[in-house]
């Protein structure tokens, strides 16, 4: 699923509003700066996952070429993705 910048901003806004309602945060900076930083962090994390998926698909393409007969891509995808995420320390 592709997320746009505005969708990531909306997610960060909802999280920030929830934290404020529950009195979980005290701002030392302007709220807009905090929201922008949260959006940047979400975008960076989202980009890591997209890069991971591209790498998994490249690996699967290579495996499919070498093991064309009995290769089941749908079974291998989550296994490879989980292992690569663990190796690269990406939280899914």
What does this structure look like?
The radius of gyration is 18 Å and the shape is elongated. It is built from three helices and no strands. The model has no long low-confidence stretch (mean pLDDT 91). Helix 2 packs across helix 3 (73-88). The protein has helices at 5-21, 31-66, 73-88. The longest helix is centred in the middle third of the chain and has 36 residues, at 31-66. The chain has one domain (5-88). It has 92 residues and is an all-alpha fold.
Please provide a brief summary of the model.
The protein is an all-alpha fold and 92 residues long. The protein has helices spanning 5-21, 31-66, 73-88.
Quickly count the helices. 3
Could you give the count of β-strands? Answer: 0
- Let me know the average pLDDT: 91
Query: Structural class per helix/strand content?
Result: mainly alpha
Main pleated sheet: none
Oligomer classification:
single chain
Number of domains: 1
Distance between the termini: 13 Å
Radius of gyration (CA) equals 18 Å
In which range does the helix fraction lie?
Answer: over 70%
Return the string of H and E elements. Answer: HHH
As a percent range, the share of strand residues is under 5%
| Morphology call | elongated
Q: Spans of 5+ residues with little confidence (pLDDT < 50)?
A: none
Question: What characteristics describe this protein?
Answer:
elongated, 92 residues, mainly alpha
Topology:
Blueprint: H1 5-21, H2 31-66, H3 73-88
């Amino acid at each position: 699923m592709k997320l746009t910048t505005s969708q990531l901003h909306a997610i960060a806004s909802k999280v920030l509003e929830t934290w404020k309602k529950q009195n979980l945060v005290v701002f030392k900076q302007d709220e807009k700066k905090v929201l922008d930083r949260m959006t940047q962090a979400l975008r960076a994390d989202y980009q890591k996952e997209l890069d991971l998926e591209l790498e998994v698909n490249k690996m699967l393409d290579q495996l499919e070429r070498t093991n064309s007969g009995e290769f089941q891509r749908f079974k291998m995808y989550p296994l490879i993705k989980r292992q690569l995420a663990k190796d690269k320390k990406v939280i899914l």
